[in-house]
Amino acid sequence: MGNKSIHYTLANERPGPGLPPMFARYKGMVEREICQTIPAPDQDRLPTLLQYHLGWVDRNGGSVAVASSQGKALRPTLCMFACEALAGDPARALPAAAALELIHNFSLIHDDIQDRDLERRHQATVWSLWGEPRALVAGSVMQSLGDLALLRCAQLDVAPEVTLRVSSLLTESYLEMIEGQCMDLGFESQPRISVDDYLGMIARKTGALIRSSLQIGALLATDDEGATAAFARFGDYLGRAFQIRDDYLGIWGDEAATGKSNDNDIRRRKKSFPVVFGLERARGAAREDLRRIYAQQELDDADVLRVMTILEEAGAPQCSESLTQESASRAVRALEGVDLPAWARLEVEELVDFLARRQY
Amino acid sequence: MGNKSIHYTLANERPGPGLPPMFARYKGMVEREICQTIPAPDQDRLPTLLQYHLGWVDRNGGSVAVASSQGKALRPTLCMFACEALAGDPARALPAAAALELIHNFSLIHDDIQDRDLERRHQATVWSLWGEPRALVAGSVMQSLGDLALLRCAQLDVAPEVTLRVSSLLTESYLEMIEGQCMDLGFESQPRISVDDYLGMIARKTGALIRSSLQIGALLATDDEGATAAFARFGDYLGRAFQIRDDYLGIWGDEAATGKSNDNDIRRRKKSFPVVFGLERARGAAREDLRRIYAQQELDDADVLRVMTILEEAGAPQCSESLTQESASRAVRALEGVDLPAWARLEVEELVDFLARRQY
Q1: The CATH number of the domain where A30 resides is what?
Q2: Chain A partners of B143 at a C-beta cutoff of 8 Å?
Q3: Closest partner residue to B140 among A110, A137, A167, by Cβ?
Q4: Which of A107, A130, B125, B216 satisfies CB 3.0 to 4.6 Å to A134 for a cystine?
Q5: Residue in B closest to A201 by C-alpha
Q6: For residues A93 and A86, what is the distance between their CA atoms, to the nearest angstrom?
Q7: A222: Cβ–Cβ under 8 A, 6 or more apart, which residues?
Q8: Is B265 a domain residue?
Q9: CB B168 to CB A148 under 8 A?
Q10: Is B96 part of a structural domain of the chain?
Q11: Contact at CB, A164 and B163, closer than 8 angstroms
Q12: B contacts of A136 (beta carbons < 8 Å)
């Protein structure tokens, strides 16, 4: 590995910003809401699979001391935040927040099956423990529980028309998310993927649900269409910043922090942003090597290191970071015209800074 | 194979009743409605997978001359029928009917992955042609399109409160359906399944969506809760009659008519009704043989024939038929207290007769 690799490995050791306070503020409420939608474990043990995936219990249904395997709950946090920032009662956004988290987790369970991933959030994946058929069912149940969670809006004095609009935004966005997954699967077998193709794919796969989280939160607080549209744009840029950072971490991230295997993305020949950029930008022998290695069925350690070096020499890490930063700035600017209290404006900045600079 | 097997093979050659006219009446409308929800094929070809599964196009997206691979569209037909029978405009039930068919087909695509089935409706299954990851995504998209189809209710002058109730009935019932699939998967590894366990499982796996089809159709026609509840009960018995007949056909059905491999259910060691009944009822050597064969990893032709003989000697075919008939009669009686026009009463009888005696 060349000097640059060492440089980037060191760079990862700078402590990144911690989870902003807004995550802690909503987490408990969202978990209680999700809890209500998941049925008690019965003979078929399906609820245990769901609770295990959410990091609430171990594989035997026993309690866990430290919930290290829980996700960040980004989407519900965004939804509740948008609602509260626009002077709405965040509790009104709870059913939608729970639905968003359940649907996000449905996509993770199915993604792990598709990608044959053995680990997620520092623990064995559902399919790797219970087999594919059960994991498939668990994912579908998670999706349905999400749909069901949303319908609790009606109990919170949300007008039926608004609930229907929220429901339709949610469904459209997770359809977009699934389309994005499908495009991503297709990319694996296509030799030429442009950076633009790639950005279009992640706008669906990652962006859609992040956008709708914010849009739905806004919609539950206000009938100001301009504010809702601004939060949607905020979500589009935030989603891009989030995913490009994720892609960066998938190659140069610290395994202990991300909970995923470090060279996973390259070893699995994933066409993440740095690789798409590298394929477009590298020239001569580097380009040929990159294409040849990505056309192989299996990659060994030397292949993974060669790919990392090529990407680093092509400037992929810097370009990933600058695209993340640019998207983060655009996200902040998208909300400039919206009338927000000072605390919310500050939290927007903390959030964007965290997502663009996180180590996990 | 003993005489009894020959007897039952002959019995299958009696022509069964054809598809009742109500199926033809709604089919075109429902297909057009579903068509609107499925996006046009694009570069990732996902819509082709969906259209192929629905029997509209061949595996290359080309048109098909005879739509022999289309299903019966039972659920949308039941939904539209319930609405029309209760003097509602069946067009009001179209979005729900499309949603029900899409959700049923989502479950078939995922079922085929779980069961490793190579054929469905006389054609290769989606996963066997496009691989598991794509089939998984195609199934999820089908489910989401179902959710989305339902929301078109709002355009048809259905009150938002009613749309939300329909949406919640639909989601709850497909959650029940998925739970049933999960119980069914669990049955594979359990040596003792009682007939009661089995009936509880099919009430979810098959019954829930059939019940909600009728319930939703009724709800869109009337605010008479008694009538809606009667249609729900009708659906419960109809679902049981339908599934027990399906199980019978899965062993003694004519392969050319059902579109499935004849000995599929036994060879795959499926614990369908005749087998559960046989395991409960058979005694002595027959019982031991049945248990031993079902504990094997693989079954050869002789094993399949031996199982068929044991089931026939235990009276499983007769018992399946009588339970189907009994459920069919109860289904008809469930609607006795509802004020229905003569044409609808006649069609109920035709439908029940068809479902209980069909050959496919």
Answers
A1: 1.10.600.10
A2: 140, 143
A3: A110
A4: A130
A5: B44
A6: 12
A7: A86, A87, A88, A228
A8: yes
A9: yes
A10: yes
A11: yes
A12: 110, 113-114, 136
Closest CA to B304 of B320, B293, B291: B293
CB contact under 8 A, B151 and A144: no
What pLDDT score was predicted for residue A191? 78
Q: Does A89 touch chain B (CB under 8 A)?
A: no
Say what percent of chain B tops pLDDT 90. Answer: 61
Is the minimum CB–CB distance between B151 and chain A shorter than 8 Å?
yes
Task: Tell me how many domains chain B contains.
Answer: 2
Which of A126, A140, A153, A162 to mutate against chain B (most B CBs within 10 Å)?
A: A140
Please check whether residues B172 and B318 belong to one and the same domain: no
Give just the sign of the alpha carbon dihedral A72, A76, A82, A87.
Answer: negative
Match 């969670």 to its residue by tokens: A149
Within an 8 Å CB–CB cutoff, is residue B9 touching chain A?
Answer: no
- The CA distance from B272 to B235, in Å, is 20
My answer on whether B32 and B169 are in the same domain is yes
Q: Are the beta carbons of A257 and A182 closer than 8 angstroms?
A: no
Query: Are B219 and B239 in a shared domain?
Result: no
Do the domain assignments include residue A15? no
B66 and B180 inside one domain? yes
Q: Are residues B48 and B137 in the same domain?
A: yes
Q: Are residues B243 and B328 in the same domain?
A: yes
- The CA-to-CA distance between both ends of chain A, in Å, stands at 23
**Residue B161 sits at the chain A interface (C-beta within 8 Å):** yes
Q: What is the pLDDT of residue A62?
A: 86
Closest CA to B121 of B52, B71, B72: B71
Spatial distance between the Cα atoms of B138 and B109, rounded to a whole number of angstroms: 8
Secondary element (H or E) of residue A124: strand A123-124
More confident residue, B97 or A186: B97
- Mean pLDDT per 10-residue segment, chain A (360 residues): 35 58 86 83 77 90 71 92 96 95 94 89 92 90 90 87 92 90 84 92 96 98 97 97 95 72 76 95 94 92 94 96 96 97 95 88
Q: Supply φ then ψ for residue A287, to 5 degrees.
A: -60, -45
Q: Domain residues for B293?
A: 224-360
Q: Do A147 and B171 touch (CB under 8 A)?
A: yes
A to B CB pairs, distance under 8 Å: 114
